[in-house]
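Contributing new complexes? Match this layout with flavin-adenine dinucleotide.
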Amino acid sequence: VPDNGIGMRHDWTGHHALVIGGSIGGLTAALLLRRLGFDVSVFERTPTSLDGRGGGIVLQPDTLRWFTECSNQHPEQVSTSTHHVQYLDSENRVIHRESVPWSYTSWGTFYRALLADFGTADYHLGEYAAGFDENADGVEVRFASGRRERGELVVFADGIGSPSRRRISPGTELEYAGYVGWRGTVPESEVSAETFELLHDSISYSVAPHTHIIVYPIPSPEGGLAVGERLLNYVWYRNVPDGHALDELMTDTRGFVSKVSLPPGQVQRRYVEEMRSAANELLAPAVAEVVLRTEQPYLQAVYDACVHRMALGRVALIGDAASAARPHAAAGTAKAAANAWALFDALAESGDIAEALAKWEPGQLELGQRLLRRVKEMGTRSQVDCTWTPGDPDLRFGLYGPGW
Ligand SMILES: Cc1cc2nc3c(=O)[nH]c(=O)nc-3n(C[C@H](O)[C@H](O)[C@H](O)COP(=O)(O)OP(=O)(O)OC[C@H]3O[C@@H](n4cnc5c(N)ncnc54)[C@H](O)[C@@H]3O)c2cc1C
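Output block (do not edit by hand):
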């Protein structure tokens, strides 16, 4: 791995760091901590390889930064791209189009690339961190398996359902946004020629009262990037009242209620049928075709969470574990990566872990709060006020602000 040119920095060789959660935030942090000299171990609750997880991610510079600056794998090897942003009306007419390039990846493609750089020797599957305790010289993490591990630094990147959030930031709860995201993918090769032509070089929006959907191309499950071999991926935001209606929707085909997500194949059939008929009624025909051709759509209920603390002594909380923001800025993975890069900078400049974390925390809290304020406004415009105007620059993606 080439040097990133940061120059003088504190060398943490001989120190052990534990990273809890082995997804995009956790792996980015693990790679960066190793770069500072730490001996890093990652612990991921899922017992089997995660690379079957699908789903598209709009790429922002922070998410890609590991590949731009530190890896021998290049961003183009893990991403697809389009040249335009467009809005379609109910007859497939383009009502707004601008030349704005975006790139995308799939969760699986990106995860495989990060793991290829980290390696599997210190990546432990099937380990659920249940609790931790800290004393003067380190932190002990207790796992559900009975395992115990000590580190001088622990980074929790354990996602939106983070059990550590409650310990580090007591009182911070997930807040339901009032809507769910229906998600799915269809091979580009399986849609009509007309739909392919209309969608393949754009991120496309279809907006109707109290709802909107976005569609964009992502790598195939095998990582294929060629136009025509990719998948069309969508997220369709639909309002569902909190309470029994949400609980019933989020009850899987086996009868288990999930708070946050239902994977492909586990959404009750009657809900899939209702969603398909609503797609026909509400969406641009090309976009509806993508939705209708999805064999196994899946669901994510949209939640926000915003912590008041991200550092506790030698323990740091990053990514969705710290603050989860509804996805309208497409910046969740970028924020997780930005948290990890800022941690890298803080530890590079200090010889004391708790001191570095204390310096790192305020800027990262501010970043999460600012993003959350913005995406709440964006969500309200679409799902409540119906003022989501095609092409409004305030609606652009971005971690720091619209378009950047
Ligand atoms: C509908 C939707 C669309 C989105 N679109 C985008 C987008 O376009 N662009 C974007 O950047 N972001 C997007 N996001 C947000 C993005 O998915 C998250 O922000 C991102 O995955 C956060 O990464 P993370 O590593 O913090 O957490 P996660 O990816 O959730 O990973 C947490 C990991 O920790 C593991 N884990 C949990 N608890 C424990 C434990 N106790 N011990 C060990 N392991 C544990 C989990 O199994 C998981 O692997 C979207 C989100 C949604 C809901």
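Reviewers usually confirm one structural detail per submission. For this one: The two ends are 27 Å apart (CA to CA).
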